[in-house]
Amino acid sequence: MIHSTRGIVFQQIKYSETSLIVKIYTESHGLQGFILKGIRKTKKGMKPALFQNMSALNLQVYHKPNTSLHHIREASPCFYPATLYSEISKSSMLVFINEILVKSIREEEANLELFAFIYDSIEKLDGMASRFSGFHLHFMIHLAKYLGFFPLGNYSETNPHFDLAGGMFRKAKPDEAHILPEQESLWLNRLAMEPDILAIPGFPDKNTRNNLLDGLMAFYSIHIPAFGEMKSLKVLKAILQT
User: Fold this and answer.
1) What is the pLDDT of residues 219-237, one digit of tens each?
2) CATH number at residue 146
3) Which of 57, 137, 139, 207 has a CA-to-CA distance to 101 between 20 and 30 Å?
4) Residue 102 in contact with residue 230, Cβ under 8 Å?
5) Please, which residues have CB within 8 angstroms of residue 179's CB and are 6 or more apart in sequence?
6) CA–CA dist 9, 172 (Å, integer)
7) Partners of 20 in the beta sheet?
8) How far apart (Å, rounded) are the C-alpha atoms in residues 41 and 151?
9) Measuring CA to CA, which residue among 7, 13, 235 is closest to residue 136?
10) Residues 107 and 64 placed together within one structural domain of the fold
């Protein structure tokens, strides 16, 4: 059956000398695999560059139930990014976000709200001229909402520490494990309470951002089995030095 859908490319895997397998998070059916036979050889039609990671595409696909690999009839960009791949800070952030998504999302079923969140985030990052140094932090916190472990909004002066395992704010002893310090907990709450990143006037300093990022990595590792090590983490930290 042929149907139209939007999709966001998660992975591109070399299948043979001439073919590719791509993992695409589709609006209509969630995460799906597609085989692109001969795409690395043909001079006409679709090109491999069209399917670079995190590309947003309009697709016409042949979808068969109970099949692991489907086929793409037509593909074209949903929009043409202006800065995502040309600005090193944004491209490094996009690689990091891509790895987060690959490790977090496995569902082969539609989730319209999650798709809209990812799609809108890509567009928003592309359009931001400044103040995006904490974009990845905001993205991770709000992605957790769709993954089922969004922070409980109970931050207060008496509950100033975020419990990474419990997913809530509470009092904490200095030597407790899986507890964020007060400054990082404060910023986690600020970012969680504001769904629109453009409404946030600024982000914390580099050290606080890095500490919060490490905390969020631990948060994801606790709540997602086999989350594993992030290969893009060191690169992102090195790029976002200011």
Assistant:
1) 999 999 999 999 999 999 9
2) 1.20.1440.120
3) 207
4) no
5) 161, 162, 163, 164, 172
6) 41
7) 14, 36
8) 48
9) 235
10) no
- Parent domain of 45: 2-77
Look-up: residue for tokens 């990052």? 125
Residues 177 and 97 in one domain: yes
Q: Which two tokens stand for residue 145?
A: 């909402």
Closest by CA position to 232, among listed 54, 89, 86, 97: 97
- In the predicted model, what is the mean pLDDT of the chain? 94
| Strand positions, DSSP E, 15-160 | 20-26, 30-36, 56-62, 69-77
The secondary structure element, H or E, covering residue 5 is strand 2-14
Are residues 24 and 120 both part of a single domain?
no
Say if CB 150 and CB 160 are below 8 A apart: no
* Alpha carbons 170 and 228: distance in angstroms, whole number: 27
Looking at the domain assignment, is residue 22 inside a domain? yes
pLDDT value for 43: 67
Residue 236 near residue 140 (C-beta atoms within 8 A): no
Whether 65 and 134 map to the same domain: the answer is: no
Q: What stretches in the chain show pLDDT beneath 50?
A: none
Alpha helices in the chain (DSSP H): 88-104, 112-127, 135-147, 182-193, 206-223, 233-239
pLDDT of residue 164: 97
The CATH number of whichever domain residue 12 belongs to comes to 2.40.50.140
Which tens digit of pLDDT belongs to each residue from 12-47? 999 988 899 999 999 999 999 999 998 888 767 788
Amino acid found at 64: K
